[in-house]
Amino acid sequence: MRISPDQMIFWEYGSINLNLTIVTTWVLMILLAMGARLITRNLKSEIKSTRWQNVLEMLVIMIRDQIKEVGLNKPEKYMAFIGTLFLFIAVSNLLMIVPWYEPPTASLSTTVALAICVFIAVPVFGIAEGGIKGYLRSYLQPNFIMLPFNIISELSRTLALAIRLFGNIMSGGLIASVLLSIAPFLFPIIMSALGMLTGMIQAYIFAILATVYIAAATKDVKVKNDKNLKIVQHG
Amino acid sequence: MDNITIIAVTSIITAGFTTGIGTMMPAIGEGRAVSKALDSIAQQPDAAPTITRTLFVGLAMIESTAIYCFVLSMILIFANPFWNHFLG
């Protein structure tokens, strides 16, 4: 019984081996990049545009509005990162209806990689917003006693991000395959539909949590700077 | 009852209990969260997007505990580290 697509070796040469996860991830990446390239090759600003351009505009506007609602005032700065996360996870989970396709998000390596991207992106955006000092001061948020707990929470939420996505998608695939071996085909269809719904919700949650973390890192900085400004003004 | 049998019995029983209890509690929590969110949306339909987003973030947090339990039971059954210790 295979738990993750990592265990299916695709191609082997000496000590280098390509597993299904890597191959599927690259195929998805090429699909997304080529799709974006094809659609944005001839954009029109008239009333009558192509239907694909409409789809893309809807997606971009939706992502931008969601980022803005969380409280990031300059969504264009973060849209590339968060939108890419959302689109990749959503497409990877939606393609579960394709037979013999295994979502790369059902392997722990992919989800850990995505979570590490968020883990690195949060301090980068925080430092870009308020400087190194301001960002590091956000770890002493209520008072300096909370410093170890803040560091622990930083690590544990990254782990939770990875395990959540992996567990949800993996359990969906596992349940579908177990049911396929014991039940006729109607019941697994319902379960895979449920799995697709879960997959979309997980993509949304991953993106929105990344946004919330980035917003927290940048907002703490702002609040601190405002306080310092006030102190400077009053003092 | 040799060692492997004992390990198998404990692993399977523990996995069952882990999944059982570890899905019961988060289910109660999620149910309470959703009912509260529905109440507040009914009272304040204008704040629905904010409430929904916060609800989803909170549900993700609650659900991750259930997922931990699930992953743990999977490890116990499919990737138990003690098997190799006694088989090898």
Give the topology.
The complex is a heterodimer of chains A (235) and B (88).
Chain A: E1 9-13, E2 16-19, H1 20-39, H2 51-70, H3 75-94, H4 108-137, H5 147-182, H6 186-234
Antiparallel strand pairs in A: 1-2
Chain B: H1 3-43, H2 48-78, H3 81-87
Explain what you see.
The complex is a heterodimer of chains A (235) and B (88). With 235 residues, chain A is mostly helical. Helix content of chain A is 74%, strand content 4%. Chain A has a two-stranded antiparallel sheet with strand order 1-2. In chain A, strand 1 and strand 2 form a beta hairpin. The longest helix of chain A is centred in the C-terminal third of the chain and has 49 residues. Chain A is globular. The termini of chain A are far apart. In chain B, helix 1 packs antiparallel against helix 2 and helix 1 packs antiparallel against helix 3. Chain B starts with a helix and ends with a helix. In chain B, 14% of the residues are buried. Helix content of chain B is 90%, strand content 0%. Chain B is mainly alpha-helical and 88 residues long.
Question: In a nutshell, what does this entry contain?
Answer:
Chain A has 235 residues and is mainly alpha-helical. Chain A is built from 6 helices and 2 strands, in the order E-E-H-H-H-H-H-H. Chain B has 88 residues and is mostly helical.
What labels describe this entry?
heterodimer, A: 235 residues, 4% strand, B: 88 residues, mainly alpha, 3 helices, rod-shaped, ATP synthesis (chain B), ion transport (chain B), CF(0) (chain B)
The helix fraction of chain B, in percent, is over 70%
Q: What is the radius of gyration of chain A?
A: 21 Å
- Number of H/I helices of chain A: 6
Oligomer: heterodimer
Let me know the largest β-sheet of chain B: none
β-strand amount of chain A = under 5%
Query: Sheet with the most strands of chain A?
Result: 2 strands, antiparallel
| Structural class by sheet pairing and helices of chain B | mainly alpha
Counted by DSSP, the helix tally of chain B is 3
Number of strands of chain A: 2
- Give the low-confidence spans of chain A: none
Helix content of chain A: over 70%
Distance between the termini of chain B: 18 Å
Distance between the termini of chain A: 68 Å
So what's the overall shape of chain B? rod-shaped
The helix-strand sequence of chain A is: EEHHHHHH
Structural class of chain A: mainly alpha
Return the average pLDDT of chain A rounded to an integer. Answer: 84
Strand order of the largest sheet of chain A: 1-2
Keywords (chain A): ATP synthesis, Cell membrane, CF(0), Hydrogen ion transport, Ion transport, Membrane, Transmembrane, Transmembrane helix, Transport
Membrane topology (chain A): Multi-pass membrane protein
Protein name (chain A): ATP synthase subunit a
Subcellular location (chain A): Cell membrane; Membrane
